[in-house]
Design a protein that fits this description.
The protein is built from eight helices and nine strands. The chain has 221 residues and is α/β, with parallel strands linked by helices. It is globular and about 45 Å long.
Amino acid sequence: MEPTFWQHRWAEGRTGWHQPEANRLLVRHWPVLSVAPDCRVFVPLCGKSLDMAWLADQGHQVFGVELAPEACEAFFAERGLTPTVDNNGAFRRYRAGAIELWAGDAFDLTDADLSDCTACYDRAALIALPPDLRRRYVNHVLGLLPLGCRTLLITLEYPSAEKQGPPFSVDEAEIHRLFEPQWRVSFQDRRDILARESGFREAGVTRLHTAAYRLRKLSSS
């Protein structure tokens, strides 16, 4: 999937994935990771998610990466914040308080960019990517995270034949194929959310669940 797809969605205001509150599975399961309060948390394909503000409220330093500059600008504007803005290699960098957002392609990140991220939160990245890019994302982008990095991964599960993504359905079997043995995978929770997702129901989806996994990086290859 080309980066321009997401850039056009933001430019046109078609951001139906944006939630009006912090994700319930994040609030419920983040404490299970037992990460240090002041740790740096990587949030890939972060958009303008309120989850980042929630993470910052827990004392974390939040590092989000997002293709669309509009999303980064909106995140700070909606909080009445004026970030410092500069260029950093292939990225446009926005910083205010405990939150730092980089506008650019996550596949352009390097080891140095993620070397001090001891935690990661992925609610939007993996399920945004088609199958051919999911493996590349796990190997290259998440592969840059340091050993021991703890991650909360949230996915969607629905009959793939009933709806064309994104967001894509990524089931538990695929999570194990993508991450093991480099990561330890622990299933945490699964919730039926079809009743509150009218867009999926209107598309003809008959089953829809969100699932949460706790991951820990064990090796680099």
